[in-house]
Design a protein that fits this description.
By secondary structure, this protein is an all-alpha fold. It folds into two domains: 165 residues, MFS general substrate transporter like domains (Growth Hormone, Chain: A), CATH 1.20.1250.20; 165 residues, Growth Hormone, Chain: A (Up-down Bundle). The chain has a two-stranded antiparallel sheet with strand order 1-2.
């Protein structure tokens, strides 16, 4: 595939990501707003949905890796989410719809994650482009659900996008690195490899926890909330692209450290908070790609799922309705150790970006995950 068409295909996965997240948010929020879910039941539904959508992904990732599913899993996930919206129309089936939406979201994320990670092994840009629009989808879906928007346009969009994904080619970015595979890790690095994965997952969990507990009172302003959402999107997309160009360690660690004072000032100063959130999210694609780089080749689904499980763990206190706020001292206590963990993980002998050994040609598009 030519470079422009590759990024166009990845863009289709990114748009579908936004549509899936929007549909799930519409389903949950509309059920709460119209009384199909009581206040207490809504909290339980949100927890169950997130448990299925994120914590279940490592198991789905293992299945996707073994069955060599990528594109077809992404399409199936979008169709499951559309089916959930159809089921949600039935008054007594709201919980079935919540479960179906969680499963659909999980299957889609794993499928899209596999495709974007395999598009260019050892690069964070493609997976950053894939994950970035999710924030936009959530924002649109929450607003639509609260406003009583009908479900059918979202379901129709998902069906259309699912069909489009099955017709599009598998994206493969042709670079010299594409023909270089990681050498088999020496036995002495096996324990170090697992340590690297744990450090990276801790960073992911910290990012999730801080993102949900950060106190930004000005988010009630529609314009500022839109700017904050845009910062999340730009941070995730730009973070991977810049890291591939300037170095994962430099970009990810610097962004994390510089975000700390900005986030600490964010409650009182919207501009600082928005800038801090942008920088804070730049680590996301790097940690994703780094976990995939440490694990054996062909484990992209499991790698993506592990990071989503870490996201769920970081979000668990908020989902469990625990009253936790990230004050400046708490931010420092979390972000600074996370920056150290990221510095160590990305500089460890078992993970050096670009440290590959010749292992023959990489899979052709026709042999990539379906």
């Amino acid at each position: 595939m030519e470079r422009t068409s590759v990024w166009g295909v990845l863009g289709a996965y990114a748009v579908t990501h936004a549509a899936v997240d929007a549909a799930c948010a519409v389903l949950l929020w509309s059920a709460y707003e119209d009384g199909r879910l009581s206040s207490s039941a809504a909290w339980s539904a949100f927890f169950v949905y997130n448990l299925l959508a994120f914590a279940l992904q490592p198991l789905i990732g293992i299945a996707a890796d073994r069955l060599r599913l990528g594109r077809s899993a992404a399409a199936a996930g979008a169709l499951l989410t559309a089916a959930a919206m159809a089921v949600a129309v039935l008054p007594a089936a709201v919980w079935a719809a919540v479960v179906l939406a969680g499963l659909g979201n999980a299957v889609f994320h794993v499928g899209g994650g596999v495709v974007s990670l395999r598009a260019a092994p050892g690069r964070a840009g493609p997976v950053g482009v894939f994950v970035a629009p999710g924030a936009a989808g959530l924002a649109v879906g929450i607003a639509a659900g609260k406003g009583g928007a009908p479900a059918w346009p979202f379901a129709a969009a998902l069906v259309t996008l699912a069909v489009a994904l099955t017709l599009l080619p598998t994206p493969v970015i042709a670079t010299p690195d594409r023909r270089r595979a990681r050498a088999a890790a020496p036995a002495s690095l096996m324990n170090a490899g697992m340590t690297i994965v744990v450090l990276l997952l801790v960073v992911v969990g910290v990012r999730s926890f801080v993102g949900l507990t950060l106190v930004l009172p000005w988010k009630t302003d529609t314009t500022l909330l839109a700017a904050l959402t845009a910062a999340v999107i730009v941070g995730k997309a730009a973070g991977g692209l810049l890291a591939d160009r300037l170095g994962w360690r430099l970009v990810a660690v610097a962004a994390l450290v510089v975000s700390l004072p900005l986030l600490a000032l964010g409650a009182a100063t919207p501009a600082a908070g928005i800038a801090g959130v942008l920088l804070f999210n730049m680590t996301m694609p790097v940690t994703l790609a780094a976990v995939a780089a440490v694990l054996p080749r062909g484990s992209e689904g499991f790698a993506f799922g592990l990071t989503c499980l870490a996201l769920f763990c970081g979000a668990a206190p908020s989902l469990a309705r625990l009253s936790v706020a990230s004050s400046p001292p708490v931010l420092a206590a979390l972000i600074l150790p996370a920056a150290v963990a990221l510095w160590v993980a990305l500089g460890a002998p078992g993970h050096r970006q670009g440290a590959r050994a010749e292992a023959g040609p990489a899979p052709s598009p026709e042999r990539s995950f379906s």
